[in-house]
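Board notes (copied after class):
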Amino acid sequence: MFIRKRWLSTAAAAVSLFLLAFFAAGCGSAGQGKLVAGKLNVVTSFYPLYFLAQSIGGADANVINMIPAGVEPHDWTPKSRDLDTASKAQLFLYNGAGLEGWVDDFLQGLPGDSKLVTVEASEGITLLPGNPEDGETDSSHVDPHTWVSPKSMLIMAKTVADRFAQADPAHQAAYEANYGALKEKLEALDREYRARLAAVKNKDIVTSHQAFGYLARDYGLRQVAIMGLSPDAEPKARDLLRISKFVKANGIKTIFFEELVSDEIAKTLAREAKVSTTVLNPLEGLTPKQASKGEDYFSLMRANLQNLVQALQ
């Protein structure tokens, strides 16, 4: 029995590794993606921008995402081949607001005659400050998670669409039509969030990672995070005690965790406080399973909304 279990475990691990590699390629990793002649080549720094670029670019764009499926973007560092691909594209989309720690060096290293059109997608959004309890109060530390709010994603979509037309004027009409269709869907999602979250009784969300500030700001919620802006940060004992007391004192029924990082701390805290846990996805990337099922920004944001409503009603 032991041998059979060990064999099954080994086989499962091998299948998981295969699927990760397979779906990373399918999601446009720069290690796999190639520039295509005759199309607008667009390189994106992570999934939400890949989603926007595909939606707006349509058949006229070849979109390459730098980060493979299943990889968390905060501490990801591009390889030289990733940067080479990005530098040879016509359009490069990055979030900004401090998400991509490597991007300033990349932009400064571009040659003076580079024709690459670059887009800081968070431009135009009123940014939230970092967590004051972590000492992140100066202007260089802001919350980068703009895309988690449909309201903010609408601003990002317009910023990206304008630069598509700049980079490839010949297909401007197609890009504008694609943007129009995307805008309608994002506006519908925004209406769903506003209507359903306005009706919930509890407005406090306890999350494992401080990734939902824009969602909270735009839809009348209050975020209480176990960890700071980076999901890899280690919470202090006093933070865990503070949040445990908050959960018990405010009748919190659910602690939210995410899929691309460990859920151990959230689940430990939930057990201690005798509450449940569920997923609240910051959409920093797709898992291989989500990619295989054809999940996208809209399906995952609607799953988030459903989980929020169930936890807060």
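Comment from the instructor: The CA atoms of residues 227 and 233 lie 6 Å apart. The chain has a mean pLDDT of 87.
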